[in-house]
Task: structure prediction
Amino acid sequence: MEIPWPIALDDHPFNSFKNGSRPAHTLTPADHETVTLSPEEVARLCFQNPLYYRDLILKHVVIPPLNRYEGGDHFYIWLNKNCPVGCTFCFYKSPKAGENTQITPEGIERLIQMSHDTKIDNFYISGGGDPMTSKASVNRLVRGLNVKSLDVYSSAFWAASPESAERIIMELYESAKANPNKPVFTYRLSLDRHHFERLSKGKGFSYAHNALDQFRRINDPNFKFLIRTVVGDDTVQNFLRGLNPVSCVDHGNDDEKHTIVTLPDGYSFKIKYLLEYESDTQFDFGTDEGKDVAYKNFATFHEFTTRWRHGNNALSYHPDGKSKGFYFVMHYDGTINILNASAPDIESSIYKDDHQAILNRNFNDILTLGIIEKGTLHVADIVSEVNPLAMIRANGIGIRDFYTRVLLEEDHTRLYASVRYVQEFIQEGRITRDQMASWPPELLALASLSPEQLKECYHLSGFSIIQQYLRWPDVTAKSLVNLYNLIALGQYFPLTTGNVMHAVMHSGIKEEIKKAFFHKILYGDDEIGPYISMTDEALNAEEDRLEALADETIAKGTDVSAIADAYSSTVLAGFDRLFDSPQSTRDRLISCLMEDWTD
Result:
């Protein structure tokens, strides 16, 4: 993405900036005259235009990885976004009626080809929705993939009767037998209190029995049945009582605990235990309940990462202890990333990239390479230097596969992390003086700062997620409303809803987008509502008062969330004044909204 330097000399006289004590670098922004700035001033301006400088790093800073990671990959796909269950803990708990988002037949064929072109050991056809709502795609993958093992995750919503269970399982079995590569197939039944509540329908565990009975009848060691449940959930124990097992033997330690169940007819299957997340992109960080959810998910993610993944969720470790592959995740829109490693702006696509192109794209980004080599917790530490709430938010939503997307979604935070990895690789000798000789001077200026100076420049830039949204060329009222709602929930503290409204009102986006945004946040879907009567002067005075309140509150050691509550409630009160004579048409109301904030 080629983005021009955003600051023109006539608008921002660079000569007025204070000269720093450090050596200055000479820059030529856009086509303007040459100006001389200190590294600190350069950095501050860079963080005001983070996309351009992030792209500068992508273009100029490329180093070879220490390892080619050819030990065999694990590949997860979210086949679709359709789920007939909708568990309360899942972020797809409210599926939209009629929505049908899934990987296309072209994407399925490209996946199969990729499995033949590279080394994928384990392939998992999984969530988003329930993959068995796309049976044809599942069976095509089972027939065609060149992998060692292939697992399908499902709730068995389709096994309400023995007849339907037999039909579905036999289709899968025939597909597995037709695969010339003979992968070990495992059907993973999701069985916990959430699924049971929605699928039992007054018939107890009959649907789960119907599915299991088909595997007992087939009894093929390469066509397996497995139950996946949640740690601390007793639903499976209730299910087992109806099976009268001969034995239930636990294996592994707390990190990899599983149980082998043997039934009276000699058939055996495995139970695996998972940590439970309370997935919710709309958690309210301004409430005790929201904070509890966020911190619970944080603890769960940390435990998963440290105890189950050796501190690095991107890598799959093999029994030899040396060879490593990647955990790839592909979403139903076709985007592919390395789990918890790929930066959101370098994600690949099944529709345009082969396996080597995906690897190159990740290795050639210094940020993603740093996460791959140094681990999931390392990048969280770097981000927390300037934006600890981003780390809490990335954990708090409880959607592990989207962790890096959320952690690095803010452009200036992503630039900061990129520069910090550049600095670390310079210190380690991975980036040499010869390589730096070809860098643009502003990149040298960024890399030359100490971490403390870099942090100060990050904060002094004044850049925020609000500016990021307003700069998008395809910004919509819907995206701005979504941001407004998340800010109202405290997910981007100390930003407030008042900040959003002020920025949108005075931005250069299309007037119809402004109108739609203000109509939605003030009236919802109503025809009439309050008239904005707070002037710019009043808003500025209110902001000054609240800043003083913030200083006073912090000095007293009060919880900072109180500041956010006071700010939001007071500023919003200015927008809740009703006209004596409400306007009768939507057009007149919106025209009032679009007037400047003066009476």
